[in-house]
Amino acid sequence: MSNRFFSLLTENRPLKTDPRRPTTDSRYGWLLATAVAAVLVAGAFLPPLVDGAARVLARQAFAPVCHQLPARSFALAGVPLAVGHRCLGIYVGLLAGTVAWPLLPTWLRGRVGPRAGALVLAAGAPAAGDWALSVAGLWANTALTRTVTGALLGGAMGLLFARAMAQMASRRVARNAASERPEVSRAS
């Protein structure tokens, strides 16, 4: 059982589903990924739009993953967003990547999975360089560089997130279709 499960997770071949059955064509997975990314972006913009306990709650939701320094956060009406510049770039990039996934040509979508590590490294290198050069005192990063480098990383992660969710939905549909087929008895 576990070997079969592992092979389903790691295979890069397209799924073979019953052509007579309607499938989600991975749209549900993609929509779920896009919805999650949209909720994260909306949550980041929430603190300036609410008051009191709701503002505190919105900021606390992002506190475990973002330093939330007011000097390194965009502000609306004088109220900082729930995340810093780079984190906002990552979340907006995540949303852009999930939205872009179905727009990619099929041949390019097929190359994303096998090159996931290289994609994340290439997209994260500018953010790492921006941070490292700033820490070393060789570069003074700005709100723009932090946001743009975060968006590059988030975009790559958004493509991978949308791919993963689309594959999960397709596999679920294929698995359900296979379980609903009538058994064929084999006479010896």
Describe the structure.
With 188 residues, the protein is an all-alpha fold. The chain has one domain (22-175). It contains seven helices and two strands. It has helices spanning 2-10, 27-45, 52-62, 85-100, 106-112, 116-135, 143-180; strands spanning 75-76, 79-80. A two-stranded antiparallel sheet has the order 1-2. A hairpin with a 2-residue loop joins strand 1 (75-76) and strand 2 (79-80). The radius of gyration is 21 Å and the shape is flat.
Brief synopsis:
This protein has 188 residues and is an all-alpha fold. Helix content is 64%, strand content 2%. The protein has one domain.
Which descriptors apply to this entry?
single chain, 188 residues, mainly alpha, two-stranded antiparallel ribbon, 7 helices
Strand content: under 5%
Q: How many extended strands?
A: 2
Rounded Rg: 21 Å
- Oligomerization status of the protein chains: single chain
Largest sheet properties:
2 strands, antiparallel
User: In which range does the helix fraction lie?
Assistant: 55-70%
* Shape assignment: flat
Low-confidence stretches: 4-10, 15-23
Which secondary-structure class do the elements indicate? mainly alpha
Strand order of the largest sheet: 1-2
Distance, first to last CA? 27 Å
Mean pLDDT: 85
Total number of domains: 1
Secondary-structure element order, N to C:
HHHEEHHHH
Question: In DSSP terms, counting alpha (H) and pi (I) runs of 4 or more, how many helices?
Answer: 7
